[in-house]
Design goal:
Largest sheet: 3 strands, mixed
Strand content: 15-25%
CATH topology: CBS-domain
Number of strands: 6
Order of helices and strands: HEHEEHHEHEEHH
Helix content: 25-40%
Shape: globular
Number of domains: 1
Number of helices: 7
Strand order of the largest sheet: 1-2-3
Distance between the termini: 54 Å
């Protein structure tokens, strides 16, 4: 049996309303131990994705009030989705092509493409031993990109 994105999904899907404050979003991420939230409208329809990276790059570095800024104002959109029956290499290729680290996974059995989770490079790392050789190259590229852009050399103070 071929490993699919649906097989490697990590944590359950967490969402936040688009008019919720960025402060509330950050607190929810911390409390639920997730790195992203699906931003939904008043009807619960996904509108975008809010990541820790969005918080840092759009709020913290600009010294913006987290109580007044809404999740909608800083979310990443449009949503980039992948079907749960897709291969890990297809997901990795999609991440590289779109320069993203989070893909919204939708139920391939549902006509409405109901969101069921989010896949990140760390999900690939957890299941590396089950991934086929054909998937490895694309996944290694995503992981390499993830590590190289996440890590900065510590300052030597010189």
């Amino acid at each position: 049996m071929t490993l699919t994105i649906g097989d490697i999904l990590g944590k359950k899907l967490e969402s936040i309303e688009e008019m919720s404050s960025v402060q509330k979003a950050a607190k929810k991420m911390k409390d639920r131990d997730v790195s992203s939230l699906v931003v939904v409208d008043v009807d619960g329809k996904p509108q975008g994705l809010l990541t820790e990276r969005d918080l840092v790059r759009k709020v913290c570095v600009n010294d913006v009030s987290t109580r007044t800024m809404t999740s909608k104002e800083i979310m990443s959109s449009p949503l980039i989705t992948i079907k749960s029956d897709s291969t890990p290499s297809a997901a990795a290729d999609m991440m590289l092509k779109n320069n993203v680290r989070h893909l919204l996974v939708v139920d391939d059995k549902s006509k409405s493409n109901k969101p069921i989770g989010i896949v990140t490079p760390l999900d690939f790392a957890r299941y590396q031993e089950y991934i086929t050789n054909e998937d490895k190259e694309a996944i290694e590229k995503v992981l390499e990109d993830y590590v190289s852009s996440s890590y900065t050399e510590p300052s030597t103070g010189l």
